[in-house]
Amino acid sequence: xxxxxxxxxxxxxxxxxxxxxxxxxxxxxxxxxxxxxxxxxxxxxxxxxxxxxxxxxxxxxxxxxxxxxxxxxxxxxxxxxxxxxxxxxxxxxxxxxxxxxxxxxxxxxxxxxxxxxxxxxxxxxxxxxxxxxxxxxxxxxxxxxxxxxxxxxxxxxxxxxxxxxxxxxxxxxxxxxxxxxxxxxxxxxxxxxxxxxxxxxxxxxxxxxxxxxxxxxxxxxxxxxxxxxxxxxxxxxxxxxxxxxxxxxxxxx
Length: 253
Known about the structure:
By secondary structure, the protein is an alpha/beta fold.
């Protein structure tokens, strides 16, 4: 690998990549998460990011973290969630464009090598990344190889009642989540939830990475359509995006 993680991974010699006809979950996985300035992925700026490499046994073998100065005020509500204030980001954060470049280069490297990138509700994170790139005049980011436990959970256990936040889903699958809403903890938890789901539903997700990626596109679309139909009982004009893993960018950005 030649990106930000390249030297670390080559030195550790920890990459285990299943062949194109083998189940995606039998090798190394990457956990990925962003913490940002807000809930709208088309407007939010990156504050922190984590990329964590885990081996097939679920052990962390390498990780990288970024703290960025987003160049805008971090609302108090967002700071209360992830713990990073505007002042802290300005004093200790790196240039946002440099950080974005490193994050995207690292993810692209893993995608190129067919390492599953596990991101809980990943459509949010990858839409944020794509919007950040578009603000800088760059739109070439071919997102592939993503595994989204949020989509998998709704497919495998469609009618389970209750919320499906990462914290709730971790509790449901017996995954310990300490320091919730820090990008590092959420990255690791996303992978562990995915592994727990594979164990709970044997055979359900035993497909190659490329097959699962295409399945999730369809599953997400179906889930969004069902949720939209539910919302329209009260609001006939409700619209839920079918897009995954990146929403079509809204303008202005």
